Amino acid sequence: MELDRLIHERLRLGIVSALAVNASLSFNELKTLLKTSDGNLSVHARKLEEAEYITCEKYFEGRVPKTEYRLTAAGKRALERYLDHMEALIQAMRDR
Fold first, then answer.
1. Euclidean distance between CA atoms 90 and 77, whole angstroms
2. How many angstroms separate the CA atoms of 55 and 67, rounded?
3. For the packed helices 10-20 and 73-94, what is the interaxial angle rounded to 10 degrees?
4. How many CB atoms lie within 10 A of CB 43?
5. DSSP secondary structure string, the chain?
6. Which of 2, 39, 45, 61 sits at 20 to 30 Å (Cα–Cα) from 90?
7. Is 78 exposed, middle or buried (0-12, 13-18, 19+ CB in 10 A)?
8. C-alpha neighbours within 13 Å on the C-beta side of residue 71
9. Position 37 pLDDT exceeds 70
10. pTM of the shown model
11. Terminal-residue alpha carbon distance, the chain
């Protein structure tokens, strides 16, 4: 089994994990939750969008621009595979 290196990175794993337990999160909610900068969040979220693990919707609320992210079915499956892989690694280490 190959480790999904796309979501193995700390911030990307944080994004997909946060979206797995929330229907959607705004850019600012993710930034606060993950304690990261605008640029860092933007770069990592874009990589997840390109892999179709998350979707990004941009809109205006009044005159204020908003960005909202959601986990896709592919992203949920990728997270589940990643967690299964990590559980197998942990179990293998405990069985030694």
1. 20
2. 10
3. 120
4. 13
5. ----HHHHSHHHHHHHHHHHSSS-EEHHHHHHHHT--HHHHHHHHHHHHHTTSEEEEEEEETTEEEEEEEE-HHHHHHHHHHHHHHHHHHHHHHT-
6. 45
7. buried
8. 22
9. yes
10. 0.92
11. 19
Q: How far, in Å, CA of 36 to CA of 38, rounded? A: 7
Nearest-5° angle of CA 31, CA 18, CA 57? 65
What is the total residue count of the chain?
A: 96
Residue pLDDT, tens place only, 3-29: 899 999 999 999 999 999 999 999 999
d(CA 1, CA 39): 32
Strands of the sheet with 54-61, listed across from one edge: 25-26, 64-71, 54-61
